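Quarterly update, task 2.4: adenosine-5'-diphosphate-bound model.
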Amino acid sequence: MTTGTMVLQARGLSKRYGDGDSLVRAVDEVDLDVPAGQALAVMGPSGCGKSTLLHLLGGLQRPTGGEVWLAGQRIGTMSERALARLRRDTVGFVFQSFHLMDELNAVENVELAALLAGRSPRQARRRALHLLDRVGLADRARHLPAALSGGQRQRVAVARAVANEPLLVFADEPTGNLDSAATLDVLRLFEELRTAGQTLVVVTHDTRIAAVADRIIAMRDGAFADAVHAGGR
Ligand code: ADP
Ligand code: MG
């Protein structure tokens, strides 16, 4: 089923919550193929299943039906431990609410991801400082998240997401909590990642994300409504 150039695949992917009258088909029989290097945006209104889809694709949640191949590996039958290892080694996540560790400063937040992925402390620190520099925060490396603006926190989160050199970066409404200036900063970072060939899956209801995507999928009621091919690759 899986092919070498596809870094992410889903077949019949489904997630249902509840049953009977309260049954919600949050994700309903989704098929997806994401080739290496593609920047994919999945767009749709609030409640259409974007976050659930992202969690299923990234191995953060288990489906109630269907299958996901992440980096060529079928994750449905994997143990939690093996899945956690696969996530740590192959994916990076960016969330709307940043999810930084409050008690760690910016560089520590970024280097932790590199340490967990097996870098030596020295390599991890070097990579973290390099990434903070790339996101324009070299002078904020020793600041705690509480001392950073929302846009700066999200730039730290983007640096952290790529600290393990992931095959795939997943982002869930990465600009959802940001004002428009900070949104532009973060969009620019995603544009840079795309240009560098990073495979990206971004779910959002923000049309500006479309500008950084190679491909846009519209989602409605848990399913793909239609596929629009944007410019680029
Ligand atoms: P989006 O991210 O597009 O706003 P979600 O994936 O968060 O959508 O939610 C999709 C649907 O699944 C919604 O109807 C939501 O209420 C429902 N849902 C999400 N998580 C749960 C849960 N843990 N229990 C029950 N229903 C849920
Ligand atoms: Mg959501």
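Highlight for this quarter: The mean pLDDT is 93.
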